[in-house]
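User: Hi! Is it possible to get a structure for several chains at once, not just one? Here's what I have:
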Amino acid sequence: MKYSFTLLIALVTIWFLWSGHVEPFMLILAALSIGLSMWISLRMGIVDEEGAPVQMGIRPFIQFAPWLGKEIVDSNIEVAKIILSRKMPLKRNVVTVVAGPKSQLGKVMLANSITLTPGTVSIKMEDDEILVHALSFEGAAEDLSGEMDRRIQALEK
Amino acid sequence: MSNLIDILTWVFLIGGSFFSIVGGIGILRMPEFYSRLHGGGITDTLGAALIIFALMFQTGLTLATVKLAMILFFLLVVSPSSCHALAKSAVNQGLEPIVDKPEKS
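Assistant: Yes, the chains can be modeled jointly so their relative placement is included. Here is the combined structure:
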């Protein structure tokens, strides 16, 4: 129930932010389209802790996203330096990261965050293990993934 | 004030273009498939983000800014998924990543 309610609030908010209309006719259309989206989502059975992750609240945006943004900028500059350097000092290696998050959503967030930071790409996922291709700085890739792991686990609680 | 915003816009636009071009150079210069994926990552994250931030400075506090923020959000969710799909299909086809030997220190 709380998941359906969250989805409804999110749809209404998004409708107003994207359209900006308040005329009665447009509001009727809004109610119809939001109702249709709700009905389809409920029929598909995707309104659960994955489709509308209310249990995380806004913490992913205020706690996790700023930290991830800083890491992305840092690793972008590192990789840009490697690409532009004359000799390209590559230290490619493949590391295995054990995913701590228990839920599917947490695992997807972890794997996507690893891919999002340049220099590390998650290439395969089996059960709890993520295979990560790292471009450089051997130890750093594991440290960074470990830190991400802790932060996403904190979001799940 | 509007001068300051214009200067910030230019700085972010040029920064974003720079990182997009570096990503492209990376894709060309890297030696093999898995390394080349990292080059695309630069264009996808910092290149796109800086350009969208520059556009946000121009739109100011309007609904268009919210739309730009949503574009950035979806871009950051979708691009690692496509990158992972590429990498995973390569692994499943049996392409082994080349690993450099760690230097003795």
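Chain A has a mean pLDDT of 84. Chain A has five helices and three strands.

User: Great, thank you!
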